[in-house]
Amino acid sequence: MAQQYQVLARKWRPKQFEEVVGQQHVTATLQNAIEQDRLAHAYLFVGPRGIGKTTIARIFAKALNCEKGPTKTPCDKCDSCREIAESRSLDVLEIDGASNNGVEQVRELRDTCRYVPARGKFKIYIIDEVHMLSNAAFNALLKTLEEPPPHVKFLFATTEAQKVLATILSRCQRFDLRRISSPLIVKHLKEIAQSEKVKADDAALSAIARGAEGGMRDAESALDQLISFCGTKIEEKDVLQVFGLVAHDKLAALTNAVIDGDTNAALLIVKELDDAGKDLQRLLADVLDHFRNLLVMTLGAEAAQLVEAPDTELALLKAQAQRIDSDAVLRMMDALTAAEGRLRYALSKRVFLEIALVRAIKAREMVGIDGVLKKLNELKGHLGSGASLPAMPVASAPRPVPQTTPAPASASSVEEAWAYATEHLGKVTPLAKAHLVGAKLLGLKGNVLTVGFDPEFAAQREFVDTPRNRELLQSRLKEKLHIDVALRLEVSEAAGMATPKPTKTAPAKASETTDFRNDPLIKKALEVFKGTIVEVRK
Ligand SMILES: [Zn+2]
Hints:
The chain folds into four domains: 8-176, Rossmann fold, CATH 3.40.50; 182-243, Orthogonal Bundle (Helicase, Ruva Protein, domain 3), CATH 1.10.8; 248-365, Zinc Finger, Delta Prime, domain 3 (Up-down Bundle); 391-396 and 407-518, DnaA, N-terminal domain (GMP Synthetase, Chain A, domain 3, 2-Layer Sandwich), CATH 3.30.300.180. The chain is built from 26 helices and ten strands. It has helices spanning 8-11, 24-35, 53-65, 79-85, 97-100, 103-112, 135-146, 166-169, 182-195, 202-212, 216-230, 236-243, 248-259, 263-275, 280-297, 301-304, 311-321, 326-343, 349-365, 369-383, 411-428, 430-436, 458-464, 467-481, 509-518, 520-528, and strands spanning 42-46, 92-96, 123-128, 152-158, 173-176, 199-200, 233-234, 440-445, 448-453, 486-491. Strands 2-3-4-1-5 form a five-stranded parallel β-sheet, sandwiched between helices. Strands 8-9-10 form a three-stranded mixed β-sheet. Strands 6-7 form a two-stranded parallel sheet. Helix 7 links the parallel strand 3 (123-128) and strand 4. The site of zinc ion (ZN) has 9 residues, from helix 4.
């Protein structure tokens, strides 16, 4: 057989610490440890898949066992280096925790690690996905790890450090690997493309990097696939087509529409992308990524330098940061993040995404309560001590509202109290109230008032259930029911068919409303915010 085709990820696998892209904080530390002869018994490499954990472990193994070693630059020529590179070293055993739970191999490890290494200085055990080892394998491993012979080194890798037993974690030196930034991936892909004599423009390589989400191995595999798909010339449109990604300019148009509050434009773009068969889950992830960068960009010039993105993206982010502040970006991200986890299970991804985008646009338009209070307080100063702040409850200092005659605690009064409490919550945080609309009052037992959320909207419960909202609702309920109420917000099948009930008008509200409209402070506030009273929420 002629020369066998070697996949790019393998062909370009780094052989030296210096060649590992984007993980200098790890490789430099390991090289220092080797140089200063301060080696630990066990190392744990943590991070998402395909960013270099086992690659670093293998280079480390070579560095330790190289005939010229331990050295920070293994020679790659001696028998030991070559055997390790070809995975046939008797002194370096690789165990994949994911493939067979490794019990047998770990038992073997326990039995063999007592013997001195065959050729190198160390017996090295590389265990990938160590969190997936079965309990039996873990226990066998732990015994060895507790009293390791001096010639044994453990190199563990995992994508989920939180699943690794604490007893193992405590015996390891831990390194957290980072996702690799897009510019670094693009730079590396460019080198590969050149050496493979493939023409690929920056836009195409950026799109690959975006699709790979910080994983070099995925990026290399993608390039491999594209070369077999397109031959020696790769353009952005090929990449987008193969991976179902959305073109950068469409993403730019969509985020612009959301930021500028142009609901129509946003929905049109979603329709177009959906019709073209784009992956909408992926689209939402891209939009969120974009807003994360935008958030950093709005935090000031110093923070803005931390944003790592291709030049076209940076220019867009800078322009958008001129039109929006960080509070607004945060509110929009809240709305989008709430949708992200649930989009996967949505029957119609498109409708779900549309709702999420409309929510984000609304959230952008909202003036934060802190902003309102600040402005109002400023106004209060201007108007002199004569004017007082209107009833605007704030969680930290709930202000009693003029009370009418106490109502007896009947089922209807419980409902009324709940309506009253949610209306007041709505004045402080309209969004929280909006999330309560679908919730169902399940009843008052003793002093526990239970409110149920349709399982499909479980995330709304999480949104509402903050100490601040809780305190506010409970204090309002107490006003009406004259007992200390413990509020229980639960996800419940019983709330499945909840229909929003028309809220009853609480007594004595009409005059409050009129007062509110005539309040000099409110009038002034409307001027400042260039607003009109559309609806007075009671
Ligand atoms: Zn060597």
